[in-house]
Amino acid sequence: MKKHIKLLTISSVLALTTWGAVSFAHSEHFTKNTRSAEQSYDFRTSTMSIYKWYLSPMGAMVKGKTEFNAKAFAQYAAGLEAIATINLLEGFPKESGEDHVDDSDAKEKIWSHWEDFETKYKNLQQEAKKLVATTKTGKEADIKAQFKKTAGACAACHKEYKTK
Ligand code: HEC
Asked: pTM here?
């Protein structure tokens, strides 16, 4: 009897450990975000610095600060569209906003308005895609109009969710 109990205990401990290892591995790799808030902040601000890298020279052309060059403009638009396909939202895990990361300008209300935040990101993706399409077919005036919509998608999100 004693032996039997001991065996049972060992096997249930083994079973539990195996189960524990499996669920641990699962959460580690598939559900748990193992990056720190600071790393997430670095990811999202680096990604948006690249947005700016492409947006700024297009903006200068649209404003007439530099000469409009359709070929260069198309390349910048393609760059913006490409970088906008990388999931920016991965860089916004909960508890990574301005109350948690020293340098962050991300308002805490992002996480209580998550669906709207997501929509604003999707809008940017769509407008950037349309901008590329316009550079392939459109006239200068159409390209400039679509550029304003694209930049407007950045501004719409910053207005609601970015401090300063
Ligand atoms: C879905 C919302 C959203 C969209 C769309 C968005 N941004 Fe941002 N952006 C933010 C938030 C929030 C921050 C503040 C992040 C932080 O400081 O933690 C930010 C920060 C930035 C920064 C500052 C980065 C730094 O180093 O501090 C730049 C530059 C920027 N965005 C450019 C852009 C450009 C250009 C676009 C459009 C092509 C854009 N963003 C679209 C939400 C957005």
From this structure: 0.84
